[in-house]
Design brief:
The complex is a heterotrimer. By secondary structure, chain A is of the alpha/beta class. Helices cover 39% and strands 12% of the residues of chain A. The radius of gyration of chain A is 21 Å and the shape is globular. Classes of the chains: A alpha/beta, B alpha+beta, C alpha+beta.
Chain lengths: 500, 95, 483
């Protein structure tokens, strides 16, 4: 099968449908991969979603997948083209974390999560752009330039919108059909917020569900690898491959991985769904409140009971986050010193070399967070900042624990607004940080959460609803997310996409 | 609490980040904005609360004492900006 | 009155606390699977974890934890069933991550104690504040290139136990005794080889001085002192320096110093190392010990030097000093016990501490590669006990054993050293000696009884030393009284 009309339909397929098509030999993995590489070639110059495109490697993998498929050797992802956030180390393929300081770095190892995807037959088309070291909510902090959201405002079609961040390249690529799915990491909202901004599904599993080994660390106690795809079921398929115990990560949970794809069809009948009242914040876009109510109504119609609950410490989650995450980052990023890998700027002595290397290698936001993190850990301030933040973190976890004693899952908006334009929210770091107001708490508590596209705002931009679940109960999160997805019937398409 | 330029210099030195004098006023404004916003944590009553270090509620798993890694100096040195034989090389350090 | 520094304004007491870094005996590193062997080619025992590559994570080695627990038990210390790892943040060329994983707030071992013994025979108890596990750093080589420092990360990530004493030490001698005793305990436990030359045991020495009865004054930390002798010298040098500073009206500043060429000097590279920004390592979870596992480790502990010393005194009737010497090295104690078993233990102790130690000293060997095995020395003692040889001949046989490594029986046979117990032969020798010295016999019988020794010597000489001394005595007494 060849021809442009076929190529268009190939990039529109879901992972589940592509998998069936590949197994039935309706098309080959090479055709599927070439279609995505062609889309990347055409659209990446506009979207800047990829830092590195690995076309040759992808085609080699595709041919191997076709050989396997022709033998009837089906792994869960055989022949499926995926994009990998450039925070996941990929053996022999440059991995930058969106930073100048790692721009020359070629890892001699493969991260556990990406290795799991390769084990299951996936094809990697490239490494996606991101906020530098995953620090950002707009993808404006990448050393490789901002990523463009494939969606356009109806009223203001010239405005270039951000895809959200930090996994903005992955979200943009999946939304524009440059890949069928992608990996991301969520530290304060870096999967769910860009998923919402780009009209796709993004899933942050429980802390410990996906190994962090080989993922460039931002904030170790908060970094959650997870998948992006265009449907809940596709996310479930990806997570099924990514997840699992990894003895190389001491924080990895040795717990069985459920059949998440099956859970998507489970329905919500008899479930108790909590509505956290503290998520109604000032300044939230009106349509978001409306969509939230709509989502609750859909779930009620599907047989769920809606329960008003309280997460009293919600407003303190972000300030706590902006102590804990920079503190950990200030330590995690100390290894970028120009000695063993990455950039080096020569200096008069070693100390000067360190200071010049790190000043030249890190962008403004990363430098800010390193300084904040260093400050809150420094002598005399530890108790007032870091220790207090950890106590608040304990209270936030307790809020969730108390809520989950009453309900099976929580439903709330993913972000307080739709995608904003490049340049907006840039003057004041705190304004930018507030993008994560609904996503940060689940990261601090480590509980699983998914963002599902549920509607459009007045400007035609996608809005996401978020489902938050109990620790290690991703299955329920998928069940509720899929119920919302079915009810919403979200079928709007981004203006910039393969085949458009 | 408000960060003085001298404090920013001190933490930048601890973090080994070169900061030019011209950057200090902007940095001070940004950092103080962030810290000011963080101050709202002081409203929270945290008496008797045990700090939460991480989201993983488990005990540490242990590895057996077996040599399973290393033995690849070329790989650990391959990305080095400067090497001398099988050593990393840096400007001379005076102790 | 103990050790004191005599200043120009009076005497000063020295206050010392030691932080000993003991490299844990394990095959693999504390948080990685790389090997720990000493002397490997540069960067050949380095994993990506040890070199702090992006995304690398630590996983703790069970044996290193076990070694720390064993050591804690051996120091009569409190084992903390829940402990935690923290990051100690600082930049240094051989610290790849920019932080060292250590235990700051919650160490695996709490308070314990060590009893030290001083040359005057007195003992003192030195408190142990804590023991914690941490990673070693790599090695910087400053002498390979005129303008470069070379970095080898082989040691990066090797497990260390930092054993911190209370500031209970009051003299260089006590410090030396403390380090030696600690090393003995670690070697008994098999948790550290105590080899200070290879750097597997190093001490940071905290020194301050004060007038008697005063509270503590400011202390300085002398870093990385790598022999017992240097520990003692560093304390003396640093204490004298501080006395001079105080007496000249100055103030001792708290700082990190380096011991070099008999003096200490300020360490430039540690100028700003006072803000380590410790925080719990988020890559690691609390270390929770299983009580049954700790009990099992405890049950399998070897007999430790103090207990062994008590047993040697009780079971073998040894003096405290001798028992102390024999238990200082486990190999010596084992050797002694093999010699002493079923024999005269005091005689065994004398031979081990006297002739054997002297011979080893001359040969520059240790008891582990002694040319005379415990079985052979035991055999020699047996030959004395059954009168095959005399104690004097035994000395000669022992020398031959040292030279040849041969069995004593073989040496005696080859050299014909077997003791003569044939009374006929003895009587004959006595008779000829008395006959040849009639004048002396007369003097003896006139009352110069001390000539008896002369006759013994002459008889032994005539018999080439092989006459049984008791029988020779008997025969002489008999003949002299009869003559």
């Amino acid at each position: 099968m060849a021809g442009s009309s076929t190529a268009i339909s190939l990039t529109d397929l879901t992972i589940a449908a592509a998998r069936d098509g590949l197994r039935a030999r309706h098309f080959t993995a090479r055709e599927l991969t070439e279609a995505h590489l062609a889309a990347i070639a055409r659209l990446n110059p506009r979207l800047n979603a990829f830092i590195t495109v690995t076309g040759d490697r992808a085609l080699t993998q595709a041919d191997a997948a076709d050989t396997a498929l022709s033998r009837g050797d089906f792994a869960p992802l055989t022949g499926i083209p995926l994009a990998i956030k450039d925070l996941f180390c990929t053996e022999g393929v440059r991995t930058t974390a969106g930073s100048h300081i790692l721009s020359p770095f070629v890892p001699p190892y493969e991260s556990t999560v990406s290795a799991n995807l390769l084990r299951d037959g996936a094809i990697f088309v490239g490494k996606t752009n991101m906020d530098e070291f995953a620090m950002g909510s707009s993808n404006m902090t990448s050393a490789f330039g901002p990523v463009v959201n494939p969606w356009k405002r109806r009223q203001d079609a010239d405005a270039v919108l951000v895809p959200g961040g930090s996994s903005g390249g992955s979200a943009s690529a999946v939304s524009a059909r440059l890949a069928m799915g992608a990996t991301g990491t969520d530290t304060g909202g870096s999967i769910r917020q860009p998923a919402a901004f780009c009209g796709i599904v993004g899933m942050k599993p429980t802390y410990g569900r996906c190994s962090r080994w080989g993922v460039v660390a931002f904030a170790s106690s908060l970094d959650h690898p997870g998948p992006f795809a265009r449907t809940t079921e596709d996310c479930a398929i990806l997570l099924g491959s990514m997840a699992g115990h990894d003895p190389k990560d001491s924080t990895s949970a040795d717990l069985p991985v459920a059949d998440y794809a099956a859970a998507c069809g489970r329905g919500v009948k008899g479930m108790r769904i909590g509505v956290p009242r503290e998520y109604r914040v000032d300044g939230m876009q009106g349509e978001i409140e409306t969509l939230w109510q709509q989502g609750l109504a859909w779930l009620r119609d599907a047989g769920a009971e809606i329960v008003d609950i309280s997460l009293p410490h919600t407003k303190y989650a972000l300030p706590a986050y902006y102590i804990v995450a920079p503190a950990e980052a200030s330590s995690n990023l100390a290894r970028y010193d120009g000695v063993r890998f990455g950039l080096r700027e020569n200096g008069t002595d070693l100390r000067d070399l360190y200071e010049r290397t790190r000043a030249a290698g890190f962008g403004a936001e990363v430098r800010r967070r390193i300084l904040i993190g260093t400050y809150v850990l420094s002598a005399g301030y530890y108790d007032a900042y870091y220790l207090r933040a950890q106590k608040v973190r304990a209270l936030i976890l307790r809020d969730f624990t108390d809520a989950f004693a009453q309900v099976d899952a929580l439903v709330a908006p993913t972000a307080p607004s739709a995608a904003f334009a490049q340049g907006e929210n840039m003057d004041d770091p705190v304004q930018m940080y507030l993008n994560d107001v609904f996503t940060g708490p689940a990261d601090l508590a480590g509980v699983p959460a998914i963002s599902v596209p549920a509607g459009l705002d007045a400007n035609g931009l996608p809005l996401g609803l978020q489902v938050i679940g109990k620790p290690f109960d991703e299955a329920t999160v998928f069940a509720v997310g899929a119920a919302l997805e079915r009810a919403a019937g979200f079928d709007a398409l981004p203006q910039i996409r393969a085949g458009a | 609490m408000s960060l003085e330029p001298a404090t920013i210099r001190r933490i930048a030195a601890l973090a080994r980040l070169r900061v030019e004098d011209a950057e200090l006023p902007v940095l001070a404004a940004e950092l103080n904005g962030i810290l000011g916003w963080i101050e709202q944590l002081n409203e929270v009553n945290v008496d008797g609360i045990e700090p939460l270090t991480g989201a993983a509620q488990m005990a540490l798993k242990m590895r057996e004492d077996v040599v399973t890694d290393g033995g690849y100096p070329d790989k650990v040195l391959a990305n080095a900006p400067e090497r001398a034989g099988d050593f990393y090389a840096v400007p001379k350090v005076v102790e | 009155m103990g050790y004191a520094i005599e200043g120009s304004t009076g005497t000063w007491e020295v206050v010392v606390g030691l932080e000993v870094h003991a490299q844990v005996i394990s095959r693999a590193k504390l948080f990685s699977g790389a090997a720990t062997d000493f002397g490997a080619p540069p960067n050949s025992q380095v994993s990506f974890v040890d070199a702090a590559f992006p995304g690398m994570l630590p996983v703790i080695n069970r044996e290193c934890v076990a070694q720390a627990v064993r050591t804690g038990l051996g120091l009569n210390a409190h084992i903390n069933f829940v402990s935690r790892f923290d990051r100690k943040n600082y930049f240094y060329a051989d610290l790849p991550a920019g932080y060292q994983i250590s235990q700051y707030q919650h160490p695996i071992v709490g308070e314990g104690k060590i009893e030290i013994e001083l040359t005057d025979g007195s003992t003192r108890e030195i408190g142990i504040t804590r023991l914690h596990l941490e990673q070693d750093a790599g090695k910087s080589l400053h002498d390979q290139h005129p303008s470069k420092t070379y970095v080898d990360l082989n040691r990066s990530g090797v497990a260390l136990m930092e054993i911190v004493s209370e500031p209970d030490i009051r003299s260089p001698e006590e410090a030396g005794a403390y380090v030696r005793k600690l090393r003995t305990i670690l070697r008994y436990l098999g948790t550290c080889d105590g080899n200070m030359e290879e750097g597997s045991m190093r001490a940071d020495v905290n020194v301050s001085v004060r007038r008697h009865g005063e509270p503590y004054r400011t202390r300085c930390e002398v870093k990385n002192v790598n022999s017992v002798r240097f520990v003692m010298q560093a304390i003396e040098a640093e204490a004298k320096r501080q006395v001079e500073v105080w007496e000249s009206g100055g103030t001792v500043e708290q700082e990190t110093r380096l011991f070099e060429k008999g003096t200490t000097r300020s360490m430039r590279s540690k100028e700003d190392a006072h803000d380590y920004r410790y925080f719990p390592d988020p890559d690691l979870l609390p270390l929770v010990l299983d009580e049954a596992w700790v009990a099992e480790l405890k049950a399998k502990l070897p007999e430790l030097p103090d207990a062994k010393k008590r047993r040697f005194m009780h079971d073998y009737g040894l003096a405290a000093y001798d028992a102390g010497v024999l238990v200082a090295e486990q190999a010596t104690a084992d050797y002694f016990e093999r010699v002493a078993k079923g024999r005269d233990a005091k005689l065994a102790a004398n031979w081990v501490m006297g002739d054997l130690f002297a011979a080893l000293n001359r040969a520059g060997r240790t008891i582990v590669d002694s040319p005379v095995s415990a079985a052979a020395l035991g055999g020699l003692l047996d030959l004395m006990a059954d009168n095959t040889i005399s104690g004097r001949i035994a000395k000669d046989v022992f020398e031959a054993m040292v030279q040849t490594g041969d069995d004593p029986v073989a040496i005696i046979e080859a050299k014909g050293l077997r003791q003569v117990t044939d009374t006929g032969a003895i009587d004959a020798a006595v008779a000829s000696v008395l006959a040849a010295n009639a004048d002396k016999v007369a003097e003896y019988q006139a009352g110069r009884e001390k000539l008896f020794g002369f006759f013994v010597g002459q008889v032994m000489k005539a018999m080439a030393g092989k006459g049984n001394p008791a029988l020779v005595n008997d025969a002489l007494k008999r003949k002299l009284s009869a003559a």
